[in-house]
Write a structure and sequence with these properties.
Layout (H helix, E strand, L loop, with lengths): L2 H29 L3 H18 L7 H15 L3 H33 L2 H16 L6 H13 L4 H9 L17
Length: 177
Amino acid sequence: MSILEFLARRRAAEQAASDTDTVRRIVASLDRLEPDRARYIAAFAYILARVALADRLISHEETRAMENLVVRHGGLTEEQAILVVQIAKSQTQIFGGTEDFLVTREFEQVATHDQKLALVDCLFAVSAAANGIDTVEDNEIRRIALELKIPHDEYIRVRVAHRGELNVLREPPREDG
């Protein structure tokens, strides 16, 4: 083994140890959250991932939108939000269908009415992050709103704010020729 290979391996090992320490610090800071707040943030992030996965693909743009929303609505640092969103995405992809209703019901029980409406607004924002809101995502958001017991007229008010991002209402591209 050459000295360059040795140094490259050593640097990679040191970087991995540093990354592990960073993750441990983030996890420790999340562990210090009040349990009710932690449950709220976990359910919030999971439901964001649920709608992002509705079209079977969570894009980079949707991931970034989720991270930003978790920072803004969860009061977390960017590093914490990245970790929370990654966990939520993994849980949604692994346990999807079976956990969806249970997690949404948990959120329905711990969130205020205004927090539920804010979540629905966030769901539209996540869906719009990558090429507009597809019908499958729109339908999933409606299901979530029903599970959150949001009255139809209030759901429609939130949806109308995102009407320009609904692909079903967009004009199809013109074909020249």
